[in-house]
Amino acid sequence: MSRVGAVLTALAALMLTAPVAAAEVEPGGWESYSPGFNVQERGCGQVDDLTFRLTCTTASGDQRAERRYVTYTGGSRQFEGYFRITDLPGSRISLKQTFNEATGPFFMLAVERGGRLYAVHGGDTIATGATIGTTVRVNTVHDVGGTHRTYINGSLRHTVAGPSGPYYDKFGAYRTNSGAGTVTVEWSGIRFWRK
Asked: What is the percent of the chain with per-residue pLDDT over 90, rounded to a whole number?
């Protein structure tokens, strides 16, 4: 076999074994886009690209390390991201939010020490297994004025109805009212779609 043939064979084998990138969980008519964002660091929050840390154990005050994306007012939006918690002596830390500008936090996905993912408003368990070192895929699909759906590792786990109005997405690490740090969370594979 020629050198070129050997290289092509090796490349073909790599393509067959390479992991396939995830796509939107509710296919059909989505347009990929890249919204702008601002970094928010408050209290003991620290952001280093896609690594988010709360470095203090305080159970009071505004402790956050997040990306806050631009506001959207209508249509349907889908978020996808992967997080991996590398350190969690604390508990009850919000990882992903869909925020209503008129009424405040609308949906908050948080984690407790031990790996339970839950909805802050209502306390519903969304999933388990978000333990130290485990990568978890999160998709949220939001039909403004309709429903907000949360998928964990591709499975629909939570649905809630919501009002119209301007919204924005946030992710990172944020101390909930009943939570405390410390925590380190690494996010990756951030993607957005709209229709």
From this structure: 85
Q: In the prediction, which pLDDT does 27 show?
A: 86
Q: Who contacts 27 (Cβ-Cβ below 8 Å, separation ≥6)?
A: none
| CA 84/CA 106 separation, integer angstroms | 23
Task: Give the separation between CA 1 and CA 6, rounded to whole angstroms.
Answer: 6
Summarised one tens digit per residue, pLDDT across range 125-177 is: 999 999 999 999 999 999 999 999 999 999 999 999 999 999 999 999 999 99
Bridge partners of residue 139, in order along the sequence: 80, 151
DSSP string computed for 141-182? EEETTSEEEEEETTEEEEEEE---S-EEEEEEEEEEEEEE--
Q: Per CATH, the architecture of 3-194 is what? A: Sandwich (2.60)
The pair of structure tokens assigned to 3 is 């050198």
